[in-house]
């Protein structure tokens, strides 16, 4: 199911349009790798991933092989049919494929490595077949440990009735060169933070909250231009 590959190209269930956007997403993350190191969470500016902002997420490692979503774009809420903040990343997969994701996450945070997963959600009543890709890129916390991840989920097809859960049809692991692992809490003092951009900041309202939300509304990740 998993291949070890030095390239970052996507294939399979990813449309040409999404493949180009994913390449730009990775290119932005690579530019944040100053000196080849893993970027810090505070380095990430949503303006750099605007094309996939509704598909993007920030996850936090909470145990080996387990990551929880801290921020998520509106497309992910649409896929699940519910708010996804606080959910484990594995919630997007069928139970039989969650152990595989867990192994990928261990390598992503420990080696560290880039993870790309081709996805398939079979069709059903009110839910047409979906193909897609999950991309997960390691980040450092402000303490210096690799315990955060920047990622996105792109899909081709109409989400239909949620929740939509996926099989992993193919996995690709790309180990990062020149990125030293720092034990949790052992990092140096963090650099000055870039100016926060509403809609992507923590711990202040990380999702869209232009005003007190009306009943029935779901907050979601967005880019706020000034």
From TrEMBL:
One Pfam family here: PAS_5
Q: Output the superkingdom of the source species.
A: Bacteria
- Return the protein name: PAS domain-containing protein
* Residue ranges of the region described as Disordered: 181-226
